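seq:
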Amino acid sequence: MPATRTTARRSLAAAAALPLLAVALTACGYGSQAKDDKVAPAAKGEKIDGLDTVKVGYFPNLTHATALVGDQEGIIQKELGGTKLSTSTFNAGPSEIEALNAGSIDIGFIGPSPAVNGYVKSHGKSLRIVGGSASGGVKLVVNPKKIKTLDDVKGKRIATPQHGNTQDVAFLNWISEKGWKVDPQSGEGDVSVVRTENKVTPNAYLSGSIDGAWVPEPTASKLVSDGAKVLLDESTLWPDKKFVITNVIVSQKFLAEHPDVVEAVLRGTVRTNEWINANPDKAKASANAKLQELTGKALPPKVIDPAWPSIRFTDDPLAATLDTQARHAVKAGLLEQPDLVGIYDLRPLNNVLRAEGKPAVADAGLGVK
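struct:
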């Protein structure tokens, strides 16, 4: 359902719920440390606002392919002119939020749970969501010998990436919709929800300690390559099959001081998404080349080929779906409804879209006043 101001204005998350959100990861986190910064050669041109460098953080994940491709192809750097693009990569949402708060990065690509968490914990003072990046790319994959239908999930052991993270909330909400009962804290009930890091999940599946997993790409396709089957694509549960998996955030201080730089980065993301959607095969190869550079290992075709088409790259942050995800967490008993009014400032993005002849995107009543 669309977000409403009444929903968004409910009380802040209870103090007891904040530690839960504090550990919530982004869509596909592995570990928690940032990689060394890399500064791309500056394109020719003047510095925007006289700024030498803009520091951008993202994950070495397919759901962050806007950043991977925009960096690899030099599209974002081109829009920055003489202002250098410095990038840092992260493997978990909390560490990226900490870097944003400390000024180690200015702009970041991140999932909905840590974005909400960072905003709520700072009482609405740390960040703004300024753009979209990706939708989808989350699947329920299962052992086909043990689970043949959705009803067969009852009584089985299903992994999610972390207690209270985006996929954990989605799975708990789906369980509730089925009429089954699970304790949100322990994960015990009609289904056993096993909180397992994505990097561990494939081995857990092969050992038989889990019967399936509700996970993002590329973990889902890695499991399929190990013999699992896709039972449900989460996108089928959402209107128009769209739900936010990656946003673009910026520190409020940087946005206030360097709005033209933020707009230039967003122009780069818009043009990157346009290039990705027009050249899917080239974009997939570009993202994989960047992953190899960052991690030392490219994804094999049997993983990246099925994973890539399930992710949709979009400038729209799909604000209503972020609010819905928060309400799912409330329904699951993980937190009280946070006040998300002001989490979005889509004015810079809409300036870019207008100039590109594209339609404006909406903040679902959760924008700055």
